[in-house]
Design a protein that fits this description.
This protein has 328 residues and is mostly beta strands. It has seven helices and 21 strands. The chain has two domains: 223 residues, Sandwich (Jelly Rolls); 81 residues, Jelly Rolls (Sandwich), CATH 2.60.120. The longest helix has 9 residues.
Amino acid sequence: MKDVQLYPFKFQPILKEKIWGGNGLKSVLNKDIPSEKTGESWELSGVKGDISVVANGELAGKDLQELLNEYEGQLVGKRVYEQFQDEFPLLIKFIDAQDDLSIQVHPNDDLAKVRHNSFGKTEMWYVIHAEEGAELISGFNQTLDKQLYLDKLENKELGDILNSEKVKAGDVFFIPVGRVHAIRAGIMLAEIQQTSDITYRIYDWDRVDDNGQERELHTEYALDALDFNGYDSYKTEYTAIKNERTQLEKCSYFETNLFELNEAKSISYDGLDSFVIYMLMEGEVNLKYDNYSLNIKKGETVLLPASINEVEIEVVEEAKLLEVYLPR
């Protein structure tokens, strides 16, 4: 493989059926879904058992782990490879909630390491589509102690203490470890997160599967993971400027920016020393560098290797593009 020059990669979506899933990944993002209960499209994954496979170019059929093992810092950046070695640090998804997801929380790195030999799960959401009146849950609406929380949980009164937010397309929420949260019915979003599949389910709306079984809850594990503080604001506020980079979120695990484009844009990554991920939320673009061109349509995700320092985005149809990388 080493004699093949790296280029922008598309990957085969890993599609997952969920009890709360729907058909929006097909109707909105044109995914070839397996059923009308498809809840997630894993666009870029290094999670063991769910490794993304290249869909385009000379290296089609190779998986992300093979690329990482072979190209190391050329693929992800020297500094990124030194930190994470042969583990790809981010998991990129689209989520379609036809029904409510469970109320849940994710552990931090220390808890996840001890309990699951895993990274923790800090994440962020970018809302692609929301039905009229759709809401999501992010955080508590007050500062609590554990006993009040447990009382509300036991009495099925969690709604009294949870912060609910009405949402629309373009809304952004940062979900740090410890923050109680739930995506609710009628919402489709992009999710950027640490490479981790660890979720503690707190409450699942008394839902049962086709066999009449309730899904497992993780009450004790969640208790140690939760941040019981209430905060003044949970939604990320931003003002997008046409054809300029707008920062949506920056933490130690990832930086996510938005480009709203109606004209061609040259972007330099000289000195970044990180891979870059593009997720197209709206429109259509051509990604160009040297003599290479790659068409990207709404709902597609591209991994730009760290070895590529400059690209041009040519606009085919007015576009909204998420840009994700590991900050210095």
